[in-house]
Structures are given as structure tokens and as C-alpha cells.
Amino acid sequence: MNSHARWRCLLVCVVILAQWKLVAGMMLVDLGKRYGLDVSNSNAPMHEGALRQIMDGVRDEKPDSMYLFGLMQFYGHGVTQDKDAAIRFFRKAAADRHVDAQFALGLLYHNGADGTAIRWVFLL
Fold first, then answer.
1. Cα dist from 54 to 5, 12, 72, 87, 95, whole Å
2. Cβ atoms within 10 Å, residue 117
3. Which residues belong to the signal peptide in this entry (predicted)?
4. Given phi > 0 = left and psi -120 to 50 = alpha, else beta, which region is 78?
5. For 47-106, how does the pLDDT look when each residue is reduced to its tens digit (9 = 90+)?
6. d(Cα 24, Cα 112) in Å, to the nearest integer?
7. Which of 1, 9, 44, 98 is the most buried (most CB within 10 A)?
């Protein structure tokens, strides 16, 4: 690949990541609402049955439950806020091909987690 093609590829990646950054906050909030987590009001009480189902799924290592628990920890909804633990749960769910967890990780990495956003963008 010549240097011109490399620069073009880099420019495309930068444009894609810049677009992601514009919608990052909005997308994470939308994903939380999609799963019934009111992340705009993380102090709202969570239904006990919902929390029990999520925790049962986490124990069984179900990707949806791990992703939801990661969202809960990221926003401090129903549990103590712990963003490092949230990233660990997102990673577990993403490793099981959970698309929303992969997207959330890409956004978090893009915003400074550890520079591995490109890996999740291209699913390498």
C-alpha cells in the first residue's frame, strides 16, 4: 500500500471515529432506554425482579445480562457506579458477539479507554 492510500485509509477512519464521537453520549443513553434503564435519572429505583433476572443472567454468563449489568455499573443505576467494572462486563459480552457491547466498547475506547477502538470497529 503506497503512502497516498494509507493517508486515505487513515482519513476515512478519522471521519468515522469523529462521527461516532458526535453521537456517543446520545447513543449510550438510547441503548440504556432500549433496555429499560432510565440512565437520565440513575437515582430512580429499579424493579427488584428486573435486577434479579439480570443478576441471574450474569451468573450464567449470558451476553445480554452482562451488557445490561455493564450499563448499570457505568451509570450507577441500581448499583454503585464503577466504570472499570462496566468495561469488564462490556468486554465479556462483546467477546460473545453482543453487538451493543461491541459498539459501546468502541465508543469508550475512542474516548480514551486504551486506544483499541479500531479493533472493535473492524471486529478483528
1. 46, 38, 10, 17, 18
2. 21
3. 1-25
4. left
5. 778 888 999 999 999 999 999 999 888 888 888 888 889 989 999 999 999 998 988 888
6. 13
7. 98
Report residue 79 as a C-alpha cell. 448499583
Q: Which domains does the chain have, with CATH numbers?
A: 24-122 (1.25.40.10)
